[in-house]
Records
---
Amino acid sequence: MPTVLALETSCDESAAAVLRLNNGCLQVIASRIASQVEKHAQWGGVVPEVASRLHVEALPHLVEEVLQEAGQSMARFDAVAATVTPGLAGALMVGSVTGRSLAALHALPFFGIHHLEGHLASVRLAEHPPRPPYLVLLVSGGHTELIRVGAESEMVRLGRSHDDAAGEAFDKVGRLLGLAYPGGPAIQALAATGDSGRFSLPKGRVSKPGGGFHPYDFSFSGLKTAMLRLVQALSEADEDLPRADLAASFEQVVADVLVERSLLCANDQGLKTVVMVGGVAANRRLRELMSKRGQEQGIEVHTAPLRYCTDNAAMIGAAALQRLVSGVNGSSLELGVAARWPLDKTEVLYHSPPPF
């Protein structure tokens, strides 16, 4: 039963987990997350230098806690994994150095994991995970992408956001409405009492140079601007700001756009399964709408378990175990970190010399 210790420090969540593969099923033996949300809330967003310092403070304790809970000594692991890209460089370095050091000290393979590959693997932590091929809507604070996942770790991006990710749009609109950071949960709570049809908002589209639109791509900057102008107009008219209706209308149009383009892409690709992963995949309205419209179109919808939608180390361990059992020997201990790296080039993370 292959077992890994996994670390995640790509942004503002410090996390450690122990995972085991038992008869083809992933088992999360222990998982711990130290959130930095309260620390960053006073600035309305993540401060990279603060995030790095908090990772340094939290990660050793998290590793100790998961080892104790798992009742596992380092000698009994088959590998150590850590996120190495993409993310905040300083934050990534904390997890990467910790992971590589533990691997070197205990003569274990080290797996440098692409953060998005971790999100894609998070659905494998569900009780009944889907089998590829399928289309993944990866929707989080930093990413909004449509990715076809096939056998043998095949990952092909078919759609993306050309500006803000959906999660960024939630945060920015949340600030506009005077809500707490992060914006996603705050907007969802407020929208529950609002009228989602009160305000008409644009579904941003991305033009092609030769005319027409990219059918599977996203743009949320126009929606964000429309919300700003709407709030300004209501304020200038001395109206009481209908924050619940504004939140509900915004949440609805985001969900509509994500669902419509995901299902269009799946149908065009001949795929009968759509998977949702990432922090925004925890949004209740999005989950319900995708399930309803997917059922209407004969498309099966799977979502990563709620506790594994936001950043966590269990998904990093899941990705590492996939690589380990497929015969990958691991990454070089000289592998560094990169703030950006394309998902379709993850294979080179396991080559020598390392790409960065």
---
Amino acid sequence: MSMPSTFWADAPTPVLATEQFPRILAGVIAAEPHDRSVLRIFGIPESAGSDATHKPSPRPQIALKLYERLIEAVLASGVVYSLRTVRVADDFYIEYLPAQRCLWLKYQQILGSRLLIQMTEEQAALFEKTARQLRAPEPDKDADSEAEIDTSSLQGEMALLRAKGQRIELPARRLQHYARIKALILAAGGVYSRNGFQFGAAIDVKEVLTRLRGGEKPNPKKARQAFFTPEDLAAETVAWAAEYLGDLAGKRMLEPSAGEGALAEPARAAGAKVLTVENHGPSAQILRNKGFEVVERDFLSLSLADIGLFDVVIANPPFTKDQDIAHVIHMWRFLRPGGVLVSLTSPGWRTGRTKAQRNFRAFVDNIGAEVEALPAGTFKAAGTNVSVLRLRAVKPVEGAPSGRRAGRKG
């Protein structure tokens, strides 16, 4: 493909802003020449001293990994389009124009292209240097090879990390930005384990590292509201439930949306017969590995015919979009008369104006629930500073005096 006929002064707006260059560089660093999800790059000078206007050699195998949402944005622009189902590796390639320091995304089947990014002089030099390094086999990870990488920035030091199996390996050299890198990897689901970070079997570690190098902040727990109950709070919450039952020995207990069983564990330790419900596959497997009985379903889809009644229900449901409200109301259906429900919730329902929030306030009053606000920062260790309430209610036994029900606190 030749350079588009557009005069450079009238060049179109790039898909990516110059400030998004780290995403492009991260793609080059993470490139795998044999990966069918990558785009090939053409037009890289052989060396830093090469004539920038030379004719590129035919399709050198240098790869640039791009995010699918970027491809979707390009297709939606109407400039590059497809007559059939698009396969990124087969249908698109990247052409680098050294004279203009830009990348064009091109379509191989028909005439069509889109300006991907316009780089600064410094960015273009770094891009060329990084891309040229992919022509040769990857060197051993030693001090000499690492010395070639510009580590003056966070993204530069990210380039020193390596994905190996289910781990992100740290380099031998000291990282200036280690504290920030560690925080990002922990938020992405890693657990520190001697010179690196271990991830669960269901995690695509290469993808996580590519996103981190591109400046993203992947946080799977935040994405699915998986802020697990801190250990001390879990033990206190289970004990709070047990106050109305004397003890939990032999009692049938339910933890809906159980995550990894933060509440189920102290309940089991207290002698409860625990059933957990969790629809996230990796978390459900962790629960099984811990020896819990697991129903791998969305809790809100379950009926009494599925799991029956319980003596106690203890939960820390997801908070967003009033999911906590829906969970608590649904939990109440699974509680046998005389049983106790304890759940953490957001405080939004107390003052919110939506129909669901107004109805929930009436529901809480009707069941005589005791409600207390937990101290600020209670969930800081779990990765969030969200405010949290805790409510407790006993399901009345028909004919029993109403004094058995919990009194509401302000």
